[in-house]
Amino acid sequence: MANKSTHVVPNSDGGWDIKQSGGQRSSGHFERKQDAVSRAREISQNQKSELVIHNKDGKISSKDSHGNDPYPPKG
Questions:
Q1: Chain centre distance of CA 51
Q2: Which of 27, 50, 61, 67 is the most buried (most CB within 10 A)?
Q3: How far apart are CA 1 and CA 60, in angstroms?
Q4: Chain segment 12-26, per-residue pLDDT in tens
Q5: Do the beta carbons of residue 57 and residue 11 sit within 8 Å?
Q6: What is the Rg, in whole angstroms, of the alpha carbon atoms belonging to the chain?
Q7: What is the number of other CB atoms lying within 10 angstroms of the CB of residue 3?
Q8: pLDDT higher for 1 or 54?
Q9: At 36, which helix (H) or strand (E)?
């Protein structure tokens, strides 16, 4: 089973897009990064997938897992 992930990526025309791993089309376009991250977090939680947030240069700035984490922390 392939790992699903939801990405917040910069749009070439400005703003931010939400894209699913392996998908070509955007799930949403936002002017502000924080708005895109908030919506992507909702989508990721609903789909139990990983949220991947990118910087303007395309590099990954952070990740957040909302699915079945194979390596849960000891607590």
A1: 4
A2: 50
A3: 23
A4: 889 999 999 988 889
A5: no
A6: 13
A7: 10
A8: 54
A9: helix 33-47
Comparison of pLDDT for 1 and 32, the residue scoring more: 32
Q: CA 32, CA 23: separation in Å to the nearest integer? A: 22
- Per DSSP, helices labelled H in 1-75 are 33-47
Residue 50: both structure tokens together = 């990983």
Nearest-angstrom CA–CA distance, 45 and 49? 7
pTM over 0.85: no
> In this structure, what token pair is assigned to residue 8?
């917040």
Q: What is the residue extent of each domain of the chain?
A: 5-65
Q: How far is CA 60 from CA 1, 13, 18, 75, in A?
A: 23, 19, 14, 28
3-state helix, strand, coil in the chain (%, to 5): 20, 35, 45
Q: Give residue 61's identity as a one-letter amino acid code.
A: S
| Contact assessment for residue 8 and residue 54, using Cβ atoms and an 8 Å cutoff | yes
